Amino acid sequence: MAGHVSMTSPLDMVELVKMIIDLVDPDDLLNVAFTCRLFFSTACARMWTMLNPQTHVTLRRVRQTLEGRHSVNKQRMPFGDYRTLVNHFRWYPHDKGTMHFERQFFDVFEFPNLVRLEFSYAAAQDHAVQHIMQSSQRLRHVNLSHCYCLSTEAIRPLLDIPPSLKTLILYGCGKIDAYALAAVIRRHCQSLECIRLTDINNDILTAIQQCDKLQDLGLEHCSEALDSTCINQFAVHLMRQKIPRLTRIRMRDIANLNTEPMYYLARATTDTLVHLDMSECNLINQEEFTHLATLCQSLETLLLAHQFSVTDEVVQLFAQHCRKLKHLDVSGCRLLTDNAFNVWLDQGENNFSSMSPLETLNISGLEPDISPRVVLHLLQHLPHINEICLGVAYDYADATQLVKTASDFSLDTGRCVTICRTNWSTRSTSNPFT
């Protein structure tokens, strides 16, 4: 032969297997793992990337696996390797019992490559959460919502890991010392993009002010410890930012949130805000809602539950100016009448209803003031509507009353009303605040 031509494949077998496994639906990974020996290790590694036990029984089985109790051939997959595969650990149990684990239960939950930790469990103890966070220097997202028993000790590892945390969610963690929490925020201020907290004080909000990359801010149930002057200073700081970034604001039940900072907040988020929750903040007047409606026209989600100053005119303004609005909650706004929805009732030239992207509408508690005609019109003419909430049922008596309310609206309850039990902590939604 005149010459020798060598042919090489652009992909080796390992790369090819990884490409195939990446295309597999997560629910099918176990089946694929047992189809052939070639796929086994790669599919198992992919399954362990996100560890999401949903019951106490499953969590105990995971623990046994991490301890090596189920390893038949440790030469093939040493039990210690499973820990290095986990990037995301999520413990949001579906069985909501308050079962207490033995103190050493979570000692084997050491994930050196853990990036995201979501731990929502009312009986969670400091030792468990602290141990998991201490095992990883790569944490970027920490969500400890509704871990009511946690104290300052639980978050101390965040003062030692590299300053690269992006998400910090501590809803309901009221026992954590404000000074320590402010220190954590200051340490990670150059990277934090999402902060959600309960009942903060001035020191914590001042620390948040240093987070120039903040895109998502959630504050709830803040008492007198957070004063109006500090809130106003924070709003002015946001307005003066060269590059506005804030896309989501949740300020729910903030005792001292009044009208003064609202104009600055509206100005600061004119081009970026898509989610706004101002529920139960009753010091805000109608004029400030007008500013929000006219300035923040990119809103997709608007939650104004139990607001004393939300009038028909306010709802009309948001409907007219916010053409991308998909989710609206005006439950408990007792000043509203049928006129609030005139923009969507008008069948004239503009015909907003046919162009509206509105998907969900919550008008709970307004049944005496909103007529059946309006509800029926909205159901029939809003092209994307899939949920109108008329009330919330907590027991059988409430559910029966809800069906009666729907009947009073002249709706066919056999076709138009569905009563279901919703697990809010695991509800599949793009809204991070629910």
TrEMBL record:
Record Pfam families: DUF7885 (PF25372)
Alphabetical GO biological process terms: SCF-dependent proteasomal ubiquitin-dependent protein catabolic process
SUPFAM superfamilies (UniProt xref): RNI-like (SSF52047)
Any single Gene Ontology cellular-component annotation: SCF ubiquitin ligase complex
InterPro entries reported in the protein's UniProt record: FBXL15_LRR, Leu-rich_rpt_Cys-con_subtyp, LRR_dom_sf
F-box/LRR-repeat protein 15-like leucin rich repeat domain span: 197-389
Protein name: F-box/LRR-repeat protein 15-like leucin rich repeat domain-containing protein
Species of origin: Phascolomyces articulosus
